[in-house]
Amino acid sequence: MNNHVMPAAERKVRVDLGDRSYDILIGPGLIAAAGNEIASRLKGRKVAVITDENVGPRYLEPLMASLKQRDIEAVSLVLPAGEKTKSFEHLIPACEAILGARIERNDAVIALGGGVIGDLTGFAAGIVRRGSRFIQIPTSLLAQVDSSVGGKTGINSPHGKNLIGVFHQPDLVLADTDVLDTLSEREFRAGYAEVAKYGLIDKPDFFAWLEKNWQAVFSGGAARIEAIAVSCQAKADVVAADERENGLRALLNLGHTFGHALEAATEYDSARLVHGEGVAIGMVLAHQFSTRMNLASADDATRVEAHLRAVGLPTRMDEIPGSLPPAEKLMDAIAQDKKVKGGKLTFILTRGIGQSFVADDVPASEVLNFLREKHPQ
Amino acid sequence: MNNHVMPAAERKVRVDLGDRSYDILIGPGLIAAAGNEIASRLKGRKVAVITDENVGPRYLEPLMASLKQRDIEAVSLVLPAGEKTKSFEHLIPACEAILGARIERNDAVIALGGGVIGDLTGFAAGIVRRGSRFIQIPTSLLAQVDSSVGGKTGINSPHGKNLIGVFHQPDLVLADTDVLDTLSEREFRAGYAEVAKYGLIDKPDFFAWLEKNWQAVFSGGAARIEAIAVSCQAKADVVAADERENGLRALLNLGHTFGHALEAATEYDSARLVHGEGVAIGMVLAHQFSTRMNLASADDATRVEAHLRAVGLPTRMDEIPGSLPPAEKLMDAIAQDKKVKGGKLTFILTRGIGQSFVADDVPASEVLNFLREKHPQ
């Protein structure tokens, strides 16, 4: 018996990938409704749930209860929280737990957590029996609008982040917006940087809407659901057009080249800088650099900075606590990330708000001069 | 400068998989010609070669020399030989070696070895940077006609063989037929079981040709190349029709259900039974069982047994050294492998030589009775 009443506010985004298409449901109460949503879609009757020590104590019990109500047999594995979990050390027990639960073709693996749990669990699901069904229940704003959509999974290597993994699309994403109420302000803001990013890539109206409605988005309710749905749809559109990142998908990296360099410069110390904060500063820098290259107006860069500052995100390198390495070192990190060919870099630049594009001939020397200016020693 | 002269006997099989299509080259001297073949196909200029302690001492040096001649930068990793290498323990250093060599999008990972090295290396190539280019240089007959074609990669888990892996097609397969001269007679015969299998699946003329020409195939030269090329083409056709094993590809398991049960019953002890020997006995059993089910004539089963015995392969369970567990235990292993639904099993049966088919309603009780008859206690 399906006794799930669709809440008025619930939204559905379809990710269109042929026989790998799937739904993202966005709304309140979706963890409690997970049993119904999964039972109506899954042929099998078994799942393995992987979560972490932060999320598990709060949401594992209601999820397991919801699954049990619909007679879905579930086992769970609780891993340590944090980026270090994205490693072979934790991938191995994740795979063995899935196999131990005898998850087969019609059963599923569930990731309950933020980006780390989603990436690791998706990778495990992607390699057990050469690909098992996979359900994402993202519990951070960042995971709901970014990492849970698009099928990129993986772990880190001593050689760098996300270097080992597979493309493995989920079969269903349940974005329960209630869980966002328990995020810290800082964590919510960091996720918000990616929401704003979708406006800056190619949705100027959405960016303008965010400028007016960001407080409502932060408070929860319909505006928050709307912002998440627009973000998921934006990412879904890009992923549908370029599943394996051969071209267009690179636009999703707006702000990320500078952002990654800053994350590396702060040694991924979340006390100093989290991913979304690096992206916020990076997006402002990308707009300022585009202005410097005479591509975009200075007003647009100012507007981007003003909005991100209004929501409480950092927008300048000197807002990062502690000292940063000199511009030359930041440039090295960018060159490692991006690969310089004949002194030229590929970069996401913009002609204005909502007019981002992939530039593959950006002179490395110009980027270095710009960084020296923004970050004088 | 491309100074590779195509030997008269060299054969090429194309595996048709859309944008994942690739060539299998079959012939003498292909390790020495690897540099030319790879240079003419690869945009990049770097490779990581993974091999094992049996194959490395013999073929790594000529391969590296051939690569160097064409200015392809190569690093190598030598892993222990044997089935135990198909584990996370060895996958991790394989991935790190590939990353350490800075193999990027246009570069490639090379597997130089038998099925174990091919499966492990293909898996590593499949997950480094979410999929790197991959070249197979199979050095056993089994690997040349079976495991190097089709894109199945993976490692073993304590829960079972090949349970963790990905589908990752190679970009090129170089089957150097000279290397087969150094295989032991027993190893060559074991690979030959899979060659005969392609005849038994759906190529009765090929099986008849093998009955006449098997001695020439064992001696080397044109007949051997022909047999390998026909086998690769046969597998390529099945894989092209069913890349991810949703149906037809199951035919490749002819003889494997009984074979796997016997491998498990002998605890994968290669002194008692190697995979190809299990498949040989399994194919004879599959034909005899098909006769018992009134599907095929007894003459066909007799003909299959006679040919495999002629080449020196075991064809009966009582030829396996040491004692086997009772029929009931063998049946348990089959049921674990195949999953019984309502007392019925999926099995590859046959209506005669070259007329195999997937039967999904074989009564488990009939299989058990048959095993009791063939293996009385």
What do you see in this structure?
2 copies of one chain form a homodimer. Chain A is an alpha/beta fold. Chain A folds into 2 domains: 11-180, Rossmann fold; 185-374, Dehydroquinate synthase-like, alpha domain. Chain A is 45% helix and 17% strand. Chain A is built from 13 helices and 11 strands. The first copy, chain A, has helices spanning 34-39, 56-69, 88-100, 115-127, 141-147, 185-202, 204-219, 222-241, 256-265, 275-292, 298-310, 327-338, 364-374, and strands spanning 11-15, 22-27, 46-52, 73-79, 108-113, 134-138, 155-157, 160-164, 172-176, 344-350, 356-363. In chain A, the strands form 3 sheets. In chain A, strands 1-2-9-6-5-3-4 form a 7-stranded mixed beta sheet, sandwiched between helices. In chain A, strand 7 and strand 8 form a beta hairpin. Mean pLDDT of chain A is 93; it is low at 1-8. The A-B interface holds A 88, 92, 95-96, 99-100, 104, 123, 126-131, 152, 154, 157-160, 163-167, 244, 339 and B 88, 92, 95-96, 99-100, 104, 123, 126-131, 152, 154, 157-160, 163-167, 244, 339. Chains A, B: InterPro entries: Dehydroquinate_synthase, DHQ_synth_AroB, DHQ_synth_fam, DHQS/DOIS_N, DHQS_C. Chains A, B: It is found in: Cytoplasm. Chains A, B: Its EC number is 4.2.3.4. Chains A, B: Catalyzes the conversion of 3-deoxy-D-arabino-heptulosonate 7-phosphate (DAHP) to dehydroquinate (DHQ).
